[in-house]
Write a structure and sequence with these properties.
Helix content: 25-40%
Strand order of the largest sheet: 3-2-1-4-5-6-11
Number of strands: 15
Strand content: 15-25%
Shape: globular
Amino acid sequence: MKKIALITGITGQDGSFLAEFLIEKGYEVHGIMRRSSSFNTARIEHLYLDEWVRDMKQQRLINLHYGDMTDSSSLIRIIQLVQPDEIYNLAAQSHVKVSFDVPEYTADADAVGTLRLLEAVRILGLEKKTRIYQASTSELFGLVQEVPQKETTPFYPRSPYGVAKQYGFWITKNYREAYGMFAVNGILFNHESERRGETFVTRKITLAASRIVQGFQDKLYVGNLNSLRDWGYAKDYVECMWLMLQHETPEDFVIATGQMHSVRDFCTLAFKEAGIELEWQGNGIDEKGIDRKTGKTLVEVDPKYFRPTEVDQLLGDPTKAKTLLKWNPTKTSFEELVHIMVEHDMRFVKKLYKKAE
């Protein structure tokens, strides 16, 4: 019997990698997407060709359903229809900075949305059949209480996003303990890829480096250069989500590399991959990244990217996942991750501007 998986947030970075991963494992994959007048299925188009499929005599690899985390009736309808063995709840308003602008919506989608999903499974009597993975986040640790952060580290979220995700974490744990559901939290630290949204700092950097070196952009503006993060490759992290649902007991795990780098480090490496050596001068908001060869300023700090409450450093301890799930957190090194992203964006930029000519 084919296992059936349902992914919320399937059109996102993690959702697209997870869909590919599960298809390779022989799953029947279903996804929930929000209705929008413009298509946002670019990351999964190679899996879902809709009208073309019949003409090309290809088999559709994933099945998409319209629904929304803010609409419990749609969640109940889809879960009843699909009868999933596994649900991966990846849907969220996931931009930390944006969560300060839309705090109420963030709480509705990320906090109450998780409750709606768990409750839908319970209402439908699938508590014993369906295993649930809840996408939790290192932003729960916010103002860090210990370094590195592990499963037992106290939470101190510093954004509406972090606070909403904390509710999601605890309600998942509560349903596990109250109803005996196999529901787990994956506390994932920053994971990036060539499919990362263009407003997230890592992708913003690799795109800017690619555009600058090809003459389509003059400068990159960033926020806090001293911000320290534990960056991994999203493709490696989705495997861990799956491993958590295959584990014999439902447990929460920190998923991280155990290594930390600054935004400045990421800039230096990305520009180097694009063929530019950066030299850093000045301090604080006056710090600049200068092209060693030409003396041109290519990176500047813009205070508009600062958050009202900043998270200075995040560093995860993946010991539990390594030991119990036999997961390898450094399958893709930090250097390799930056290389993959810049290599992709160099091609992407070239293609994009060729089209525009």
